[in-house]
Write a structure and sequence with these properties.
Radius of gyration: 15 Å
Distance between the termini: 37 Å
Shape: globular
CATH class: Alpha Beta
Oligomer: single chain
CATH architecture: 3-Layer(aba) Sandwich
Number of strands: 5
Helix content: 40-55%
Length: 153
């Protein structure tokens, strides 16, 4: 799978561990930074990754900051993106299966490396299941399009 992974400086060590893990599994993974301990504002990284995924540059994205919350909020501001913060395997699976989330976010200060690997694996194994979730995803898309059209005119 073609993935893009990004973090702020707090999330960089976890992001780097996930890059190694995902590449070892054979995924085509690009690193959107941060690549040093210099402070990086998470909204900048979240916006760049979300715009990339929304534009079709990568199939899915993974974002890491201190809690994962700020990354999820920011990524969800990009039209067409559904980002979900994940902290347990069931939510990680359902992010894709029930909500067709293209991006997941993790908290480096709330989730350890081994747990993060488990969560990302659960997310990447899952695909949109359609079925009874499809109308709900369609409603999310409709809300997004409604507000996008209001902003544009």
């Amino acid at each position: 799978m073609r993935l893009i992974v990004g973090s702020d400086h707090f999330g960089r060590p976890l992001k780097d561990a996930l890059l190694v893990h995902l590449r070892a599994q054979g995924h085509d993974v690009d690193d959107a930074g941060a690549n040093s301990d210099d402070p990086v504002d998470y909204p900048d990284v979240a916006q760049a990754v979300a715009e990339d995924v929304a534009g079709g540059g990568h199939e899915r994205g993974i974002l890491v900051c201190g809690t994962g919350i700020g990354m999820a909020i920011t990524a969800n501001k990009v039209p067409g993106i559904r980002a979900a913060q994940i902290a347990d395997p069931y939510s990680a699976e359902r992010a894709a299966k029930s909500n067709d989330a293209q991006i997941v976010t993790l908290g480096a200060q709330t989730v350890g490396v081994e747990t993060a690997k488990l969560l990302v694996d659960a997310y990447l194994r899952s695909e949109d299941a359609g079925g009874r979730s499809a109308p709900k995803v369609a409603k999310m898309i409709a809300v997004d399009e409604l507000y996008r059209s209001r902003r544009n005119g």
